[in-house]
Amino acid sequence: MINTHYFYLAALSAVFMSGCATPPTIPDATSIEKAATHVLSETVYFSTLFSTCSALGGDTELDAIDIQQNWINTNANLVAAADSYYSQQQASNTFTYDGKTLAPAAIRLVMDARNRATNELALAQRSPVNKQKTCQFRLAQINGNKLPLANDPLIAPYQAELLTHVPLDLNIADAPQLAGGLSGASQGATYFTIAKAHESSCTAAYTLSIANQWPKEAYANFCGEKAVDIITCEWGKCETKKL
User: Fold this and answer.
1) Which of 60, 85, 91, 138 could pair covalently with 165 via S-S, beta carbons 3.0-4.6 A apart?
2) Percent of the chain with pLDDT over 70
C-alpha cells in the first residue's frame, strides 16, 4: 500500500526547502567594474590582432576585416556598455590633457592589451610566409562560441548588469574612451627623475609615460593598479596633481 501521508510530507518539505533557497547574489560594483575592465582589455586585444593581421594585405587582410566585422556585430552592445560603466567608475581618477579627459588606468589598459596581442603574434620575429600563417591560424580560431565576449567566464556572470548601461551612442571605435586614443609614449627627458622619485613611495611603484612631445611631457604614477598622481611637464618644469 502506498503511504500517501509520507508522500504529502515529502512534497511539503520540498516546497518548504525551495522557498528557503538562497536568493541569487547581486553583483557588487567592484566585481562589475572588473568585468567591464576585462571587456575593454579584450576589445583592445582583439582590435590589435585584427589591425596587425590586416596590415599584411592579401587574403589575410580580407579575412581579418571580415572576422573583425563579425566580432563587432556580436559584441558592440556589451563593449559600449562596459565602456560607459568603466567611464563612470573612473570619473574621479581623470585629468585633462591636450583638451581630452583621460584616465591613467585606461591608457595603461590599452598599452597592456596591445602589447599582449603584439607579443602573442610576434610578427617581427617571423618570415613573410610565417607572418601570414601565424595570422591565418589565429584568425581561424575567432569563430563560433569564441566570438561572443559574453562566453568569457570572467564576463558572463556580469553581462546582464553591464548591458543595463548601454549608451545611446554605440561608437566603440575608441573604447575605452578615457584613453583618448593614447597607448603610452616613449620616455621623455624627465621620465627617469620622476620614476626614481616614485620608486620608494609605495610597493609595486610604476610610472607610465603618457605623452612625450617635447617640451611637453605627461606621466602617471601608480601604486600597483591604482593611479595616485599625474605629472605634467613643460621644458622640464613639472606640476603634480594627486588623484
Assistant:
1) 85
2) 89
